[in-house]
Structures are given as C-alpha cells and as structure tokens.
Amino acid sequence: MRPPMKPRLRFAPSPTGYLHIGGARTALFNWLYARKHGGTFVLRIEDTDQERSTKESLQAILDGLTWLGIDWDEGPGKEGAHGPYFQMQKLAHYAKVAQQLIDTGWAYRDYSTEEELAAARKAFAAEKGLKEGDDLRSAGFKFSSPWREKKDTSDKPALIRFKMPRREGRFGFDDQVLGRIEKPYDDFDDFVIMRSDGVPLYNFGCVIDDHDMAITHVARGQEHINSTFAQLMLYEALGWTPPLFAHIPLIFAQDNSKLSKRKHPEADVMRHKANGILPHALINFIARLGWSHGNEEIFTRDDLIQKFDFEHVGKSQGVWNPEKLTATNKHWLKNTEPLQLAMALLPYLQAAGVPDAACDAKLELGVRAFNERSATLVEMAEKLKPYYAKGVTIDGAAAAKHLGPEGKALLAKAKTELEALKEWTAAIIDPVVMVVATAANVKAGAVAQPIRVAATGGTASPGIGVTLELLGREETLHRIDAALR
RNA sequence: GGCCCUGUCGUCUAGUGGCCUAGGACGGAGCCCUCUCACGGCUUAAACCCGGGUUCGAAUCCCGGCAGGGUCACCA
User: Could you say which nucleotides of strand B lie within 7 A of any protein CB atom?
Assistant: First the structure.
C-alpha cells in the first residue's frame, strides 16, 4: 500500500479589504485540516481585481492571519516550489493556458464590445417590457456571444470565453460537507475566463493555481458552489484532476443578513483585537460557529487540530453571537497562564494610559486578580489602571454609605493593624479584616467595605488582601489617610 | 425568475430509525457560596417548519408544501 498523499490546502484571499471573519474561518478550517494531517498550508493572493486590490489590504490580511496564529508554509514571504503566490505575477502563464484552451476548441476569443453587450441588455429589457433598474437576471437575460462559432484570430482586443459543451443531463461532485451536488449542463452558459487586458478571471486563475500548487482540498464558502461547477468544466477541458471540495456555510449577522464589511463592524477580525479579544478565544469561537465535536465547547489549539474534520462542519448558515464570543473570551482569560496573559495585556495597559506598566510581579498579581473579573483585555486594563495611579477619587455614594462616622472609626482601627504588619502580602493582610471585625463585634463586611472604598474609591474590588497588596503598602496607607481626613 | 443549498430551544449546536418524556453551550429567570465585585455550584423556562407517506417504531428515511440563503459580471 502506498502512503496516503499529504494534503495541500490553501487560503486564497483577494486583497480588497481587511480580513473578514468569514475569510478567517475559511482560512482556519483549511489550516486545521492541513495541520491535522501533516500537510501543507498555502497562502495565495488573488490580486487580479486591480481596481480594488491594495497593498494596505494585503498587509491587513497578513496581519490578521498572523494575529490569529494561522501560519502558512508557502506564500508571501515564504517562497516554495509552487510559486509565484501572487496571481498578477503569472499573467504569461495564464495566457498560455488560455491559448491551449482555444487551440483545443474549449475556448474562443470574443470581440464583442461593452457597447454591444449594453445594447443586448437594452433590447432584452425592451422586449420584456422591463423598466430601468429591474433585475435582468431574474427576468432570464443571457448573453450569447456571436463569436462562439466564428473563427477569428485577429489581434483586436478580445476577451476569452470558455465554450461550455452542449450536453444533456447533469454533472456534479461529491462535496465533503454537503454530499453530492449536481446541476444540469444546460444551466451553464459560456463564461469569461480572461479579460481583454489579459488578466484572468477568478474561476480561471483559481483552477490553474490550484493545479499548479498541487492543492488536494479546497474548503471555501458556500457562495462558491456555483463557481465550483464552472471550475469543474475547466478541469475537464484541461484534463486535470480536480481537488476535493468542501463548501462551508456562511456567517450571518444578528439582523440575519450576510455579515458584511459595510454594515457590521464585527466582520473585521482586527476589530476584535482592538476590543480586547484574545486571538485564541476568537479562534475557538469561530471554529464552533459551523463546526462541532459532540457537546464540547472549549478547545485548545491542539484540540482543534486533532479533532477537526469536514464531516462535522454544519450545513446551515450560522448567526454571529457576540455574547458567546464574550463568554468564550472570559473562559480563556481565566484559563491562560497569568504570565502569558500579562504579556498580552501590556499593550492594552499602555494604551489605557499606564506607560510605566511592565511585565513584572505586580502585573502578574493584577492579572490573577482581574482575569476572572473582566470580559476583555480592554476592560482588564481599565480596571487595573487605578492600581498604578497615585491617589484615588472616592465615589460619593460609596463614601456616604461606608465612610460615615462608624465606618471611619473601623477604618482607623484597621489602619493601625495594617501599619503594624511586617509583611505586605494578601495572605498576611486578609486576617486584619476579621481581627478588627471581631474586636468591634461587627460583621466582616462592616470593616472590609470602608477599607475598600478608601483604597479603590468604589465598592467593588477583588478580596481586600489582594487589593491592598496590589496597591502596595505606601499607596494603601496614603489613600486611607486621605479618606480619614 | 432559473438552478443550487439549507431548515432541532432566542443563538451556536448534539442527534446518522428504538438509548429522545430531545442533550450541551451562550443568553434569560431563580437559589447557594461570600468582606464587595467576580468566580464557582445548583435549579428552571425554552426547540425537532408544516402536511403526507414508509415502518412495529421517525427529529432521524421518502414525497409535497412553506421558509431562509446562495448564485446567475471583462468582482472574487
């Protein structure tokens, strides 16, 4: 038995905008499959739409993937044996293949002009009695090029069309998630594979590249199902073996419309970074949106690699659920090594206005205190910020409730006890509350709250011991003095 | 409109003919823990789109409706 071929998968974005959540998930699924089977993950840039492609978009996509930890074995910055990985660098090659298709009768040069096409549309509309703005497609408009049967090899600018064979019956493929999908042949018209300026169109470039790059599995959004049929014909015409296809369901926004860049800010992967979501939390969340493994919800990176398969990718569209993303983020905030979390938090802390924060013992303590009290890194930074400040503004309502005469008397007693401590750690500080409370015959809360308000300015904080340790002895006593005055 | 895909709690989903008086997670409600806030624990409400078959038996198979979505560019 010969060893199974190592799979090669790819993610092929067009650099026409930031990394979209849907794209990120497509990339993730391909990446997971490649990693699981010890295969190769290729990043290919489909930059043939010169109108919209930009360098900034390319960088944004690269940044997005990098932030998520989705690394590629071949692609930009990682030249491999199957390059180039930018389509615009392969124009001559595409032209050669197109010519081959013309030579074998599978394609033809079409000299129709934009004007002729427009005229055809207009004539159709008139015949059907359609008004301006009506959808010609739903009315059944099809353009049949007069050049399909003509022989002309002049040098005039021409686009190249694939010559769809006139056949009876149906054709299709076995989708890895949807199962068998078929369509009638006559549902297809000739389609453009090369623009008149020599730049290939999506279906054409995609097929050639997937072949050149020896891609074995193509996982992409369900919106591509129809192009898969066109591509299948191209494979037949070229005599190539197509890869296996897996069409994954689309992601919708909460308003039940397709998650779009314009309407939905959450569609931008990097937006989540700005919002303080951990990259792995986002990975965990989008993996579960459309894929499942029994009742499991939480997966480490290795879990995902080990457990992912196309068989358990769902068939129906999923709706973006911000609450669940937050919940997933909270989970990973609580379950990430404090030191690692501290490093991730540092930039957020600096952005929050704590320039002197460093990845030290204090930050680690702070992270341990607030990782289960924050939903995002942004929130955690905001909560930690007062612990790096000198002095604090006390909330009026909190003072009124806890720093009355009684509260102040208890606070003063606590202060005496605190000053006497030889060490300043949570374990040593904590008992002070009970000592004072017992002596005064009051509940622990009657002592803890005045201390908390004095130290933090508010009524909510981690345990008194941790809170004061984090603040430091000197700052704590200063704040208590200030509150007592 | 043609063609194609899909249809389990509000949302993500488990479920591949009997284990389903349908399970988990998020969100909701309530309780417990407690120095506050959290965390954690427990309890609870909430779904098989509809109608026909097939079968001893259907969320699961078949057919028909209905609903949602995709696609029909010299975009990808």
Answer: 1-8, 10-16, 23-27, 34-40, 68-76
